[in-house]
Amino acid sequence: MKSLKFIIVLLHACCIHGNIEERLEKLETDMVNLKEHVHHQDVLINHLNNVILSQNEQNGGNGTTRGRRSFLQSSMAAFTVLMDHVILAQPANTPLVFNRVITNLGIAYNSHTGKFTAPQDGVYLFSYSMHVNRIGQSFLQLVRNGVQIVGSVTESTNDYGDTQGGSTAVIDLFAGDQVWVEVFYDENDRLEGKYGGTSFTGALLA
After folding, report:
1. For position 121, what pLDDT does the model report?
2. How many angstroms separate the Cα of 34 from the Cα of each of 111, 114, 130?
3. How wide is the angle at C-alpha 196 spanned by C-alphas 160 and 69, nearest 5°?
4. H-type helices in 61-168, by residue range?
5. According to the CATH classification, is domain 76-204 in 2.60.120.40?
6. DSSP string, 15-65
7. In 3-state terms, what secondary structure has residue 83?
């Protein structure tokens, strides 16, 4: 009888532990989604603030460097980011996070999620490159709001091999659209980021 009670208590504890783990996972997912939503709003607010500042300074007619800089920030979005580490077995259809920011004019690229959010309607240029070494391969694609725009495949067939690949696209975006790079096939994938060869760049053209 005591053994039976112990088993019942143990099963009950396991169920509680399982429920707690599920809740924690849900909270982590909600937190990531919330951070992404906040960043999205920050990009749009930053753009509107820069537009207002630029207009005020232009109306003042001071022609200062600060005024020109504010106008540039309000009328453009441009970024270049790198990956500074090796990635193995990146899950398919999840954004690659390029964590080393070189340029992020307009703060439209999110280094926590790997996504670029368009601050305004316009035509944008995007380009990514990937460095694969040793025995490995990489299947990457540039996506807009989850839909593939362009893709590329790079493969290294020996331990001393180094290959470089990538793709470029010009895309018409609306404010709030998101663009990122992701793996679309994840068998034996390997990305080398230590030498600056794996990067992501984007800019507003018009």
Report:
1. 96
2. 15, 15, 30
3. 170
4. 65-75
5. yes
6. HHHHHHHHHHHHHHHHHHHHHHHHHHHHHHHHHHHHHHHHHHHHHHT---H
7. coil
Distance, in Å, from the CA atom of 13 to the CA atom of 89, rounded to the nearest integer, reads 34
Return the ∠ at Cα 192 (arms to 186 and 198), rounded to 5°.
95
The amino acid at residue 93 is N
pLDDT in tens, 11-34: 566 666 667 677 667 766 666 665
Q: Are 180 and 55 in contact (CB under 8 A)?
A: no
Residue with tokens 């996506």: 143
Q: Tell me the two tokens of residue 18.
A: 């399982």
- Tell me the C-alpha distance between 79 and 103, whole Å: 5
Q: What is the pTM of this model?
A: 0.67
